[in-house]
Amino acid sequence: MPQPGLTLENTIRSMRIIYVALLFTMILYVLMAEALAHHDVHDVHVLWIAFLLTGLMIVGIALLFRIKMLQPAIENLQEKADDQIALARWRAGNILSFVLAESIVLFGFALRFLGGTITQSLPFYIVGVALMLVWWPRRP
Q1: Cα gap 128→113, rounded to integer Å
Q2: pLDDT value at position 2?
Q3: 3-state SS of the chain: helix, strand, coil percent to 5?
Q4: Which residues lie closer than 8 Å to 26 by C-beta, 6 or more apart?
Q5: Angstrom distance (rounded) from CA 140 to CA 133
Q6: How buried is 3 (Cβ within 10 angstroms: 0-12 exposed, 13-18 middle, 19+ buried)?
Q7: Confidence check: pLDDT of 1 > 60
Q8: Alpha carbon distance 122, 61 (integer Å)
Q9: What are the tens digits of pLDDT across the range 43-93?
Q10: pLDDT tens for residues 29-38?
Q11: Per-residue burial over 82-95, b = 16 or more CB atoms within 10 Å of its CB, e = otherwise
Q12: Confidence (pLDDT) at 41
């Protein structure tokens, strides 16, 4: 039996469910790291710099995905809402950007478990959650 095509409404609904689930896990990562991380502070300055540079690259890659994948898909969907290829690109671009934002929070999570301080992890938490809040899946 053939599968019905994706609809804009179903895709928006599924993107919002994925969004809420990933945002919720980000908050859980922060709470778990602060509750369970050992509080023996280690010198993780070099690791912090490496995570910071990698995190900046990930933000750049996520922005690139949003520009190269989402913008053309949004433009196509504004002209023709039932364009299956544009809908799939819009969905993939959203999921990729959400996952990349979550990976930034995971850097802060890892730093806490490796002996970093909350001050070192906090920028990763803030940037990851802020990106997610800015990237709420809107109707094209």
Answers
A1: 18
A2: 45
A3: 80, 0, 20
A4: 101, 102, 105, 125, 128, 129, 132
A5: 17
A6: exposed
A7: no
A8: 21
A9: 899 999 999 999 999 999 999 989 999 999 999 999 988 889 999 999 999
A10: 999 998 987 7
A11: ebeebbebbbebbb
A12: 77
Dist CA 80 CA 90 (whole Å): 13
Q: Kindly state the tokens that stand for 115.
A: 């002996």
Residue 36 structure tokens:
């369970």
Domain ranges (residues) in the chain: 8-36+43-134
Reference 70, options 52, 99, 93; nearest CA is 93
DSSP per-residue letters across 116-137 = --HHHHHHHHHHHHHHHHHT--
Q: Are 44 and 120 in contact (CB under 8 A)?
A: yes
Distance CA 46, CA 59 (A): 20
Q: Mean pLDDT throughout 111-131?
A: 94
First CA to last CA across the chain, in angstroms?
30
CA distance 128 to 32: 16
